[in-house]
Amino acid sequence: MADNTAETVKKTVETAANTVKASAEKAQATFQANAEQAQAAGAKAFRDVADKSAAGISELNAQGKQNLEALVASAAAAQKGVETLSAQSVAFTKKSWEDGVAAAQSISQARSIQELLELQTTWAKSATEAWLAEATKATDVVTASVKDSFKPINERVTASVEKFQAAR
């Protein structure tokens, strides 16, 4: 019976060892599968974040480019306004000078004080009216120039606000 007991203990130990070994192998396989799943999930999450970051950077670059284009368009519109105003001012100054010379010649040929005062009054009135008309034209040019200059920037601000609101 001692042989039988030793044999039973030996079989029990072998069975227990085999069970422990199988459990350990199963645990290792499960651990490895879980580790591979975790690694795959981590890699996918990293790729997703990297893709979103790259898309965000691309979007920022596109926004920056559009903003720069709007600033360039704004500066071009302002420059056009300045050129128009400058040309208008030069033309007015030239015409004013010519009218002043003509008035001086006319006034210098006056035969009486009465005629001199009438010619001077007529010239002063026409010069004042011309100056007021020119000031009105200049105001219109400045107003249009400012409006044209801010248009591209306003459009970019509006587009950006709409984009941020849509992203909410």
Draw up the topology in text.
Layout (H helix, E strand, L loop, with lengths): L1 H107 L4 H55 L1
Helix pairs in contact: 1-2
Query: Which regions are unreliable across 5 or more consecutive residues at pLDDT < 50?
Result: none
Oligomer: single chain
Overall 3D geometry? rod-shaped
The level of helicity is over 70%
Helices, by number, come to 2
Radius of gyration: 46 Å
Task: Give helix and strand order, one letter per element, not per position.
Answer: HH
Note the main sheet: none
Arithmetic mean pLDDT: 88
Number of strands: 0
In whole angstroms, the N-to-C terminal distance is: 82 Å
Number of domain units: 1
Structural class: mainly alpha
Describe the protein's architecture and organization.
- The protein is an all-alpha fold.
- The protein has one domain (2-167).
- It has 2 helices and no strands.
- It has helices at residues 2-108, 113-167.
- Helix 1 packs antiparallel against helix 2.
- It is rod-shaped.
- The mean pLDDT is 88.
Outline:
The chain is an all-alpha fold and 168 residues long. It has helices at 2-108, 113-167.
